[in-house]
């Protein structure tokens, strides 16, 4: 079973990397960009075919390693 | 208008960062993970409300800066 975990910064948390990308796009002549925020995506292959078990593993993975839940949100999608 | 750009490594391209995450999850006791590949996600705010114009800007942004098209795929979703 496959899953995709998306980790994004919470609203209100400063994102200097996103700001830098926004500036770089402007200087490269890409118009119409009002804001950029960067996040991370993890494509995870799971051994189990059981949805509940997969979700439990993924939640543990996010809480323990993939996301810093103080400043980041995460979303798990099973594919 | 908002958009999400997802950049992932192409199949066959080595992902040492993903391998490291996989190892870390194993040593943290998260079971059932068979593989991890890491990518990037960009949440972009656009000034225009025109879909075609938005897609053109986003394609330019991806080709010029956000993705290395030699080793990475990108996907643009308008939200």
From TrEMBL, chains A, B:
GO molecular function: ATP binding; phosphoribosylformylglycinamidine synthase activity
Matching HAMAP family: PurS (MF_01926)
One record GO biological process: 'de novo' IMP biosynthetic process
Source organism of the structure: Microvirga vignae
Name under which the protein is recorded: Phosphoribosylformylglycinamidine synthase subunit PurS
GO cellular component terms listed in the entry, alphabetical order: cytoplasm
Reaction catalysed by this enzyme: N(2)-formyl-N(1)-(5-phospho-beta-D-ribosyl)glycinamide + L-glutamine + ATP + H2O = 2-formamido-N(1)-(5-O-phospho-beta-D-ribosyl)acetamidine + L-glutamate + ADP + phosphate + H(+)
Main location as per UniProt: cytoplasm
The enzyme's E.C. designation: 6.3.5.3
Location within or outside the cell: Cytoplasm
Keyword match Nucleotide-binding: yes
Gene3D superfamilies named among the record's database cross-references: Phosphoribosylformylglycinamidine synthase subunit PurS
Chain's role: Part of the phosphoribosylformylglycinamidine synthase complex involved in the purines biosynthetic pathway. Catalyzes the ATP-dependent conversion of formylglycinamide ribonucleotide (FGAR) and glutamine to yield formylglycinamidine ribonucleotide (FGAM) and glutamate. The FGAM synthase complex is composed of three subunits. PurQ produces an ammonia molecule by converting glutamine to glutamate. PurL transfers the ammonia molecule to FGAR to form FGAM in an ATP-dependent manner.
Protein family: Belongs to the PurS family.
Pfam families on file: PurS (PF02700)
Key words, A-Z: ATP-binding, Cytoplasm, Ligase, Nucleotide-binding, Purine biosynthesis
Known partners and oligomeric status: Part of the FGAM synthase complex composed of 1 PurL, 1 PurQ and 2 PurS subunits.
Pathway the protein takes part in: Purine metabolism; IMP biosynthesis via de novo pathway; 5-amino-1-(5-phospho-D-ribosyl)imidazole from N(2)-formyl-N(1)-(5-phospho-D-ribosyl)glycinamide: step 1/2
Keyword ATP-binding appears in the UniProt entry: yes
């Amino acid at each position: 079973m496959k899953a995709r975990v998306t980790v994004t910064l919470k609203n209100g948390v400063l994102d200097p990397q996103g700001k830098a990308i926004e500036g770089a796009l402007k200087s490269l002549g890409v118009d119409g960009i009002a804001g950029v925020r960067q996040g991370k995506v993890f494509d995870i292959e799971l051994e189990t075919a059981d949805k509940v078990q997969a979700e439990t593993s993924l939640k543990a993975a996010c809480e323990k390693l993939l996301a810093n839940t103080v400043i980041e949100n995460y979303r798990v999608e099973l594919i």
